[in-house]
Design goal:
single chain, about 250 residues, alpha/beta, Rossmann fold, six-stranded mixed β-sheet, four-stranded antiparallel β-sheet, ATP-binding, FeS-cluster_ATPase_SufC, ABC_transporter-like_ATP-bd, Fe-S cluster assembly ATPase SufC
Length: about 250
């Protein structure tokens, strides 16, 4: 589904990704772990098309198409979703208006009809019930007045409403207490299917206790330096990144 080959990227004059190669298959949940400054969030921003991140070499394809040639909105319409490490607030735009507008914009780019109000509200009720978000919260501006945990639950809610093909989740467990971690994990697990894929960027094993990955990659020095099963994450939790080649 996602194929990255020898990807190099920089911010300003600083090269951060230095020949990263990675493959994520449909139906797979892949985790990326690594020390601070390794390039994990840079990878997420590059794939999503964030301004200021320059790709200098390599390629990234999504379902066979050149992902890097697409504008950010076209990447979203193709099925790529980015869950932010630090979700932003958008005052004056309610969650529900934001999501319905985003969903219909994506459907339009794909040549699909707009979602009906009844179908949209059905999705809203189903996803909000799982994630513990009440309708009053969803009528607020996007993330406005939300705690850190509520913002991450709202990201999982957006994932459930938009139903993308590929979820790229950048430290979605950051700032979550035990209960919020369990709730957000339930939202991610509901998203799993043979037709979709998830790339989880995380520092900690605790998220992977709830969202069982199929494969774990270690990113260090701008490259994937080791790949293994769930036991690799347990070893990193116990031993840290000392001895991991950069």
């Amino acid at each position: 589904m996602l194929e990255i080959t020898n990807l190099h990227a920089k911010v300003g004059d600083r090269e951060i990704l230095k020949g990263l190669t990675l493959s994520v298959k449909a139906g797979e949940v892949a985790a990326i772990m690594g020390p601070n400054g390794a390039g994990k969030s840079t990878l997420a921003h590059v794939l999503a098309g964030r301004e200021g991140y320059e790709v200098t070499a390599g390629s990234a394809t999504f379902e066979g198409a050149d992902l890097l040639a697409l504008e950010p909105n076209a990447r979203a319409a193709a099925g790529l979703f980015l869950g932010f490490q630090y979700p932003v607030e958008i005052p004056g735009v309610s969650n529900l208006l934001f999501l319905r507008t985003a969903l219909n914009a994506q459907r339009k780019l794909r040549g699909e009809a707009e979602i009906s109000g009844a179908e949209f509200l059905k999705r809203v009720r189903e996803e909000s019930a799982v994630l513990g978000l009440d309708m009053e919260m969803l009528k607020r501006g996007v993330n406005v007045g939300f705690s850190g945990g509520e913002k991450k639950r709202n990201e999982a809610f957006q994932l459930g409403i938009l139903q993308p093909k590929f979820a790229l989740l950048d430290e979605t467990d950051s700032g979550l207490d035990i209960d919020a971690l369990r709730i957000v994990s339930e939202g991610i697990n509901r998203f799993r299917s043979p037709e979709r894929a998830v790339l989880l960027i995380t520092h900690y094993q605790r998220l992977l206790d709830h969202v069982k990955p199929d494969v774990v990659h270690v990113l260090a020095g701008g490259r994937i330096v080791e790949t293994g099963g769930p036991d690799l994450a347990l070893r990193l939790e116990a031993q840290g990144y000392e001895g991991i080649a950069a």
